[in-house]
Amino acid sequence: MQKVILYDTTLRDGSQMEGISLTVNDKLRIAEKLDDLGIDYIEGGWPGSNPKDMEFFKKAKKLKLKHSKITAFGSTRRPHISPAKDANVKALLKAGSSVITIFGKSWDLHVREILKTSLDENLKMIKDTVSYLKSKKKKVFFDAEHFFDGYRHNPDYALSTILTAQEAGAEAVILCDTNGGMLTNDLERVVMEVRPRVKVSYGIHCHNDSEMAVANSVAAVMAGCDHVQGTINGYGERCGNANLCSIIPALKVKLGITSISDNKLKELTEVSHYVAEVCNMKQFDTQPFVGLSAFAHKGGVHVNAVLKRTESYEHMEPQIVGNRRRILVSELSGKSTLLTKAEDLNLGLKKDSPHTKKILKLLQDLEYEGYHFEAAEASFELLLKRHMKKFKKFFELEGFRVINEKDDKGNLYSEATIKVKVKGKVKHTGCEGDGPVNALDGAIRKALVGFYPKLADMHLSDFKVRVLDEKAGTAAKVRVLIQSQDKEKSWWTIGVSENIIEACWQALVDSVEYKLLKG
Amino acid sequence: MQKVILYDTTLRDGSQMEGISLTVNDKLRIAEKLDDLGIDYIEGGWPGSNPKDMEFFKKAKKLKLKHSKITAFGSTRRPHISPAKDANVKALLKAGSSVITIFGKSWDLHVREILKTSLDENLKMIKDTVSYLKSKKKKVFFDAEHFFDGYRHNPDYALSTILTAQEAGAEAVILCDTNGGMLTNDLERVVMEVRPRVKVSYGIHCHNDSEMAVANSVAAVMAGCDHVQGTINGYGERCGNANLCSIIPALKVKLGITSISDNKLKELTEVSHYVAEVCNMKQFDTQPFVGLSAFAHKGGVHVNAVLKRTESYEHMEPQIVGNRRRILVSELSGKSTLLTKAEDLNLGLKKDSPHTKKILKLLQDLEYEGYHFEAAEASFELLLKRHMKKFKKFFELEGFRVINEKDDKGNLYSEATIKVKVKGKVKHTGCEGDGPVNALDGAIRKALVGFYPKLADMHLSDFKVRVLDEKAGTAAKVRVLIQSQDKEKSWWTIGVSENIIEACWQALVDSVEYKLLKG
After folding, report:
1. Of A67, A110, A302, A387, which one is the catalytic site residue?
2. Ranges for all domains in chain A classified under CATH 3.20.20.70
3. B180: chain A residues, CB-CB within 8 Å
């Protein structure tokens, strides 16, 4: 069984994504998680580019990693200077990692127009830098930047850059599709043409600008690469890097090519979620393999077929990556869907029990009113459990008031007051906010957190509002969906009303109660 | 230059995506947009599956489409019944489209285990259904469901299903990777193997479960397909369908294979946004080609290099798809769009006038804040005309207050008070409503209708709310779109704020002012 080396660059390339900004502590937490998953190399940053990255390398030395090696990233020396005197190369050594990845130019256009030096000098820069780092007992990987664009314009020169690195002692040469513009066929052909010349580890590094980074990475492995670079969730500049959360299972499930162990593969969904959380990004529901919708079935035809034979509408078993099948409750949902869901929740709902009929009726009524439980499974679970009296109310509302004002200078003011009864005590709080919903959200948390401190662990991560009967204009019913998350999971809750504040209130209450129920 | 046929299934497969729920009116708006873009076939829905889809076909007949043909989707007849008596086939005919796409089983497992019929009967079902629809003068396309899984397990049988459809008169056979599990290489090999047997149009339909739908679709075209199915933004069940917003430019830019015209290609970014808006989905920033970040440069090395030579870190010119590079200040595409729009409005805006520059700057600032004028042209027109002092304010706001309460019995109460100055007079009114927005809407109308009686002719006909920066939870910015109509026309207006009441207020004011301006 073939094996590939995994090289993760979430901490460097991934952190270049718009909206991601990682602290040193965030980076350390992600590194530990990647080590636990079984990633071979973790690119920690570019120590020559900013002090935060240097601090990471200092602190990373204290991590007790079981499997991964931390690598430092940087460029070849500048033109006409000795590597020992190049600030960037010095920073690479100062970072102190046992493995160093340097990138060099493989596209003649870049050498001439961006570096503004000669093709020969660029080869010397590669040779000198690799040799120098080898003399310092480092393991060296060579990222051939823009290799594919370079190979298209000047194949001999592109090839000479990686051969130079190889001869100078690099333990791996990596072909980079830096602009992400390669089609799968073309990239595969180049990987095959170059393969006979590579005597060391042979890597691939793809970007997703043509929405092909995963296909390209897998095709490259099939064409002879044994080292794959990518990021968790495909984070990265522009359209992102190759997504390891898809590459790892695609290689394993479709081709039998191993990287992390089968047991660790079962943690992939959780790792994807964890990294999203630390990066403060919402995990895309539609993300292949590990996303919330990846194995969700909605259409009636599909649902019936999946219940008969799971492979009929699934390309693999979701359990392999720690994900799960979800039968979505929707307008089309019948009794069998409800029973399947209840089974998942261990509620012991029987086909002919009076509960089942009542709940089914209630569900149909609610869906008619505009509730949409396929998008709010936490509210669905609470609905079932409330109806089956599986938990006691955590609090009772005595009343709330939300005031929103605008004055003649355009100043806005929002305030919410709320009165709740918790464990026999009445709590009355007020809160200002960025708009009425935010104020209400603040007020409910303020009222409850003293009684239920774990509410401090959760926060709202997504918020959707949909107008249902649009023709009613501003008197239309609105459906509010709120996603909340803590460190382990995320959950959606729902509210429906002609009054948007009331719809938000319902979703907020469910959000909080679900957290309290699950702990 | 090779050409491919584009077949869009956003309205059917796309609407199966979790979180998407389209009204008939939404579907009609999307169909018009796709027609304008130059899509060849628009799959409108499955008329046999629900009454909403049938209503769409009825109303779609009144659309004045310039290029696209609407197609109806459904399955082959059920086992052992004549097509003329099959409810699903009857519904397909009733829909009245000139093109009908039927799907049939190509995987023997599905025939036996899901349909529970014989392999022979399945072939007869395909033959009879195609022949029957041909006898009704329909153009027929055959979607070979699960073709690739079927071909893996029983290639002769899978092949016989498409040959049967072809012999019965189908004008196109489409190989479907229904479960989305195919790797690019394998899919390409099958497309090539089957190609010599196909004498009609040869299609591909991919799903994204392995994150390869775009790569697979492009590879299939390179291997001989001339018909590509997909959806705008890759919407679809589970992990989505093949993304036409990536396939169209990838084929054109990388391979010179045309579909829509180069001029229409420049509208692709706008179409992606528009469809996202109507579906009430956030367009992913990292979406290749058309996403906000697709040509955004963050890394210092990249930025410098891009300023020297754009191709150094970009795989194509963003203008080709109407997108833009995010580090440059001057924006010619923005200016030309603005001038085109101003021309439509007869505002006499000149390329080099100071007005143009100021408005362009203002527009950029507003778009950065989250305004989205392509979905709210009435607000755009008001913005231009206000800036060019083409009309006087119809009223001035002195202030408003909105109160929203809930008591311990669950009773809700909403009230708005408003003070405006109109034609020198101050008017102070109050209004209750179904929720705060409805109350505010009532109050503003009450205050103004005495001065402007024609406001009684208009009403609000649609209302959309989108959360912009979802991660901010209830403190997130929201964008409100309101559609208003009177007897002659309808118009969309927009408001953006962290405060939903304020965002609604902005859209309401524009809605009323537009009516007063247009009479």
Report:
1. A302
2. 5-278
3. 288, 315
State the Cα–Cα distance between residues A472 and B328, nearest whole angstrom: 44
| CB nearest B441 (choices: A459, A474, A502) | A474
CA distance B149 to chain A (A): 9
Chain A neighbors of B466, CB-CB under 8 A? 464-465
- How far is A106 from chain B, CA to nearest CA, in Å? 12
Structure tokens at A429: 């709080």
Instruction: Name the 3-class secondary structure at A330.
Output: coil
* Listed residue (A75, A17, A84, A27) closest to A54, CA to CA: A27
Q: What is the chain A residue with the closest CA to B148?
A: A315
Contacts of A237 in chain B (CB under 8 A): 293, 296-299, 302
- Chain B interface, best mutation among A149, A210, A216, by max B CB count within 10 A: A210
Where in chain A are all domains bearing CATH 3.30.160?
A: 395-451
Q: Name the residue with tokens 């050498």.
A: A111
Put simply, the answer to whether A436 touches B110 (Cβ < 8 Å) is no
Residue A76's identity, in one-letter code, is T
pLDDT digits (tens), chain B, 519 positions:
689 999 999 999 999 898 788 888 889 999 999 999 999 999 999 998 777 789 999 999 999 999 999 999 999 999 999 999 999 999 999 999 999 999 999 999 999 988 999 999 999 999 999 999 999 999 999 999 999 999 999 999 999 999 999 999 999 999 999 999 999 999 999 999 999 999 999 999 999 999 999 999 999 999 999 999 999 999 999 999 999 999 999 999 999 999 999 999 999 999 998 898 788 777 788 999 999 889 887 655 565 676 677 777 889 999 999 998 765 322 333 565 667 677 777 887 787 788 888 888 888 778 777 787 766 888 988 998 988 888 888 999 999 999 999 999 989 999 999 999 999 999 999 999 988 888 999 999 999 999 999 999 888 777 778 777 766 767 778 888 888 877 777 788 999 998 989 999 999 999 999 999 987
Distance separating alpha carbons of residues A320 and A302, to the nearest angstrom:
21
- Closest chain B residue to A481 measured between Cα atoms? B19
CA–CA min distance B417, chain A (Å): 10
CATH number for the domain running over B5-278: 3.20.20.70
The domain made up of B395-451 has a fold known as Double Stranded RNA Binding Domain (3.30.160)
Q: Is A302 a catalytic residue?
A: yes
Rounded to an integer, what distance in angstroms lies between the CA atom of residue A34 and that of residue A31? 5
Closest CA to A437 of B437, B235, B152: B437
Shortest distance, CA B274 to any CA of chain A (angstroms):
16
Tally the residues of chain B.
519
Sign for the pseudo-dihedral over CA of B463, B468, B472, B473? positive
The number of C-beta contacts closer than 8 angstroms across A and B is: 377
Please enumerate in sequence order all residues whose Cβ is within 8 A of that of B89, keeping only pairs 6 or more positions apart, or say none.
B48, B74, B77, B83, B129, B132, B133
Contact B310, B317 (CB under 8 A): yes
Residue B41's CB: how many other CB atoms inside 10 A?
23
Contact A238 B286 (CB under 8 A): yes
For residue B201, give the nearest of B219, B220, B227, B223 by alpha carbon.
B227
CB contact under 8 A, A287 and B239: yes
pTM of the model: 0.76
At residue A257, what is the residue type? I
Strands, sheet with B478-485, edge to edge from the N-terminal-most edge strand: B459-467, B478-485, B490-497
Phi and psi, residue B161, nearest 5°:
-70, -40
Q: Do A185 and B309 touch (CB under 8 A)?
A: no
Backbone angles phi, psi at B285, to 5 degrees: -60, -35
Task: Using the Cα atoms of residue B437, residue B439, residue B441 and residue B443 in order, give the sign of their dihedral.
Answer: negative
